[in-house]
Design a protein that fits this description.
This is Polar amino acid transport system permease protein. It comes from Ensifer adhaerens. The protein is of the alpha/beta class. The protein is built from ten helices and ten strands. The strands form two sheets. Strands 6-7-8-3-9-10 form a six-stranded mixed sheet, with helices on both faces. It has a four-stranded antiparallel sheet with strand order 2-1-4-5, with helices on one face. It is globular. The protein binds adenosine-5'-diphosphate and magnesium ion. Magnesium ion binds next to α2.
Length: 261
Amino acid sequence: SGLEEVSELDAASRTSGASFKGGSLDVRQLSMAYGELDVLKGVDLSVKPGSVTCIIGPSGSGKSTLLRGLNRLVEPKSGDILIDGESILAMKPERLRRRVGMVFQHFNLFPDHTALENVMLSLTKIKGLPNAEAERIAKARLADVGLASRQHHRPGGLSGGQQQRVAIARALAMEPEVILFDEVTSALDPELVKGVLNLMADLGSRGMTMVVVTHEMGFARRVADQVVFMDEGRVVEAGTPEAIFDNPQSQRLQRFLAEVL
Ligand code: ADP
Ligand code: MG
């Protein structure tokens, strides 16, 4: 129920919680394509450790493709991506996935496993931790997202907002240096959106480096250190929330804001 969401949210924001040690991210002249279709055309992006970058832009502008490149779910065509100065192109995919977490619009939880097991699985399978250790970490991360009391529920017994918080706990459990969020509230019922956004704001304030593709302009304005506007595979403008929302320079951004605000 709505009331439960609110009280759990309070619990989540009360966790003074561990602080995170986010890494930096540098994208240099990144180009990506699907076959013949050029989707990213020389994207540059610089993300400071512990900062929140919100990426906005029309549908089809290449936002999801950029995130997939950062995680090498799709291989870049040219250019480079550095995490804390180290090229991800030289990194083993398993190592990269530990350093860069990703949360999707559809939570991608295993339906036959409990919340606790869902968080534990990547710790045992990818990190190779023993069960007891994985369980200890998974419980702590579920507590961080306000779901300690729901750890033995399966996804089907949780609200969409709670499921998304399990997915965030799962990403956090890997101790990534950067977490990528791709429209993580777009599939949620409106009354559940705020809880997830507040949790994300909380992670940002605790030092996690986050790259957030979002339609939630209020969140971008309130939480982002940097807002990046993409269109047709390029970064058209990047700057502080004030610069982007109050003083847009390009016609394309002005038009986009007129449509969404
Ligand atoms: P956004 O997330 O900004 O909506 P995407 O990165 O999903 O944009 O898509 C950018 C472009 O790439 C679109 O033209 C889309 O149709 C195309 N595209 C996305 N995914 C694929 C794919 N798997 N295969 C072929 N084309 C794709
Ligand atoms: Mg997308």
